[in-house]
UniProtKB/TrEMBL annotation:
Similarity remark: Belongs to the ABC transporter superfamily.
Any one GO molecular function term: ATP hydrolysis activity
Keyword Nucleotide-binding on entry: yes
GO cellular component: ATP-binding cassette (ABC) transporter complex, substrate-binding subunit-containing; maltose transport complex
Domain of life: Bacteria
Protein name: Sn-glycerol-3-phosphate ABC transporter ATP-binding protein UgpC
Entry keywords, A to Z: ATP-binding, Cell inner membrane, Cell membrane, Membrane, Nucleotide-binding, Transport
Domain ABC transporter: 6-236
Portion of the full sequence shown: 1 to 240 of 361
Lineage: Bacteria, Pseudomonadati, Pseudomonadota, Alphaproteobacteria, Rhodobacterales
Amino acid sequence: MTATGVHLEGVTKSFGAVDVIGGVDMQIGKGEFAVFVGPSGCGKSTLLRMIAGLEDTTSGSIHIGARDVTHEDPAKREVAMVFQSYALYPHLSVFENMAFSLRLARRPRKEVEEKVNRAAGILQLTDHLHKKPAQLSGGQRQRVAIGRAIVRAPEVFLFDEPLSNLDAELRVQMRLELARLHKALGTTMIYVTHDQVEAMTLADKIFVLKSGMVQQAGAPLDLYDDPVNRFVAGFIGSPG
Ligand code: ADP
Ligand code: MG
């Protein structure tokens, strides 16, 4: 898998007369774990969906690596998205759930087996490949959803609050697994959360968003030590 940076320049988004994203510039480095953090409704999912190509931009540009993908079909972008509700196919085995996109793309059987087995190894799902989703725990199901993204070997992973449906204990465990996954794959990851602890522990770089604008971007400790305003301070949690 190759890692690629993501660059946003002057990106805006309006739904009808409502401006939801108001001129966002972002530089996310190759292999970086970027986290978008901010209150509900600030535009985190909309930004992620624009990067994935699931939503048009109103203006501005998005580059993945050197490629301008602003008007590119989502299927052509080298990104894979993992959602909060990880709708797995209930009638298919774990193996077939992970193989699904490769089968759609008519990849050879041997390649499908190799890729699914490798992803299963990384996610500790090897012993569960024959099971149906209903036989798995919540954490295991979320790992299958991540496995479906891994087999596509994307240049960029997009996560939209992937842990928010899990209980607190499992969230801590999955957080460690995501950190391990990032280390193992070395892929650029963009991760959306409204959970400060998740942001602080996972991120190389945090983007704090408010009302569709980036308030501050930087390494977790820089934001913690040097917040530009009360909003960032309140969100990142430094006492000063
Ligand atoms: P977040 O993920 O940070 O909670 P969203 O990106 O989902 O925020 O939403 C940002 C704003 O855009 C919200 O006010 C939301 O109501 C609005 N919004 C999102 N999607 C649509 C849509 N398809 N049509 C109209 N408004 C939308
Ligand atoms: Mg959201």
